[in-house]
UniProtKB/TrEMBL annotation:
Residues annotated as signal peptide: 1-21
UniProt entry keywords in alphabetical sequence: Signal
Protein name, UniProt field: DUF305 domain-containing protein
Ranges for domain DUF305: 73-133
Keyword match Cell wall biogenesis/degradation: no
Pfam (any one): DUF305
InterPro entries given in the database record: DUF305_CopM-like, Ferritin-like
Lineage: superkingdom: Bacteria
Length: 135
């Protein structure tokens, strides 16, 4: 094989990795066109594993669809909100399936703390979004 062809073949995986990273940043691609999962509902009619799968699917979809603008603080907040909501949903799921007082206390603490952090992030986003529109 010619050296130029070998060099091109060696670069292809690097180009593909770069394209994947760029695609992930913009949250585009085939997955973004898929219908989002239904909202999470903590229901005692489902086994715990199914509730965890549901919570993960909603969280992953929320993080993939987070509106990003390339500003680190903004992008961090928009992706962390669904991540924290995922923790809240998982804690709700375990509350339906355990009587262990230590785990129940942990789950209740997660719900309270993560919801508080979601509220802080929503307030930050609201303050900073209004600043961006007035510039």
């Amino acid at each position: 094989m010619r050296p130029a062809i070998i060099a091109c073949l060696a670069i292809l995986p690097l180009m593909a990795a770069g394209a994947q990273a760029q695609e992930h940043h913009h949250h585009g691609g085939a997955d973004s066109m898929a219908a989002p999962p239904p909202p999470f509902v903590a229901s005692s009619t489902k086994p715990f594993s199914a509730l965890m799968d549901d919570a993960m699917a909603v969280m992953d979809a929320g993080m993939q669809q987070a509106p990003m603008n390339g500003i680190a603080e903004h992008d961090f907040v928009t992706m962390m909100m669904p991540h924290h909501q995922g923790a809240v949903d998982m804690a709700k799921a375990v509350l339906l399936h355990t009587q262990d007082p230590e785990i129940r206390n942990l789950a209740l603490g997660i719900i309270a703390e993560q919801q508080n952090e979601i509220n802080v992030m929503q307030a930050w986003l609201q303050r900073h979004s209004s600043k961006e529109t007035t510039k």
